[in-house]
Amino acid sequence: MPCEAQLSSSFYDNTCPSALSTIRTAIRTAVSRERRMAASLIRLHFHDCFVQGCDASILLDDSATIQSEKNAPNNNNSVRGFEVIDNVKSQVENICPGVVSCADILAVAARDASVAVGGPTWTLKLGRRDSTTSGLSQAATNLPTFRDGLDRLTSLFSSKGLSTRDMVALSGSHTIGQARCVTFRDRIYGNGTNIDVGFASTRRRRCPADNGNGDDNLAPLDLVTPNSFDNNYFKNLIQRKGLLQSDQVLFNGGSTDSIVTEYSKSRSTFSSDFSSAMVKMGDIEPLIGSAGEIRKFCNVIN
Fold this sequence. Notes:
This protein is mostly helical. The chain has 13 helices and 2 strands. It has a two-stranded antiparallel ribbon. The longest helix is centred in the N-terminal third of the chain and has 15 residues, at 19-33.
């Protein structure tokens, strides 16, 4: 019978049985050192999958043949956690050389990062292979930005096979992590009607109005429980305390208000929807079978 290559939750059971436990321990250690890393690792997987599929293309450095996605506007000086992935990869290479892809490590790391901060878990499908190319030009157009409106976010996620509900659930990962002043300055100084006045003035303290002044000062995306994966992000939106414009548009008189309300009332509904959306996201255009390669080092092609 012809065999249809596809992702499978048991992909490494025979070829590298201790891969998943090795990754889990390394991620737990990294997150215990720095809680923010959990958010960074989830975002790394997301920014990988939205640019030519979940193929670890985001990890490639500039070279003679590669224009690194790290230099894209939405990644530069923003995505982080590369050294954690490199460390995991070297540990996995030590036990099973040439077996486990960087693309799969990104997917597993995102799941384990969620669990490490009290978030949901999910059963991962594995068997992705690593790209030999990068998608710098795609990265400029295929990643959401903090200024995006609801229509833009909905169509962008739809183009990747993700529903509006998936998009709102995945946005809920902003229950952890931090954003730089440059990404929310316009919102806190814009005197818009969809921002709580007290919240805006609190955020202004560490984010000066002038461009170039304090651009990299950080604020938590969830002001209530910034290091715990829960549903407070959605409660914040209802109180008009979303940090980014692209957060608050999810609750601003539009079609997604009802989903935000639902998640604000039920952490379990949010958690299960987030898990299934992460599985769907991890299924975006993987390289399988003999496509791509298994990199020895995640930042360079073999």
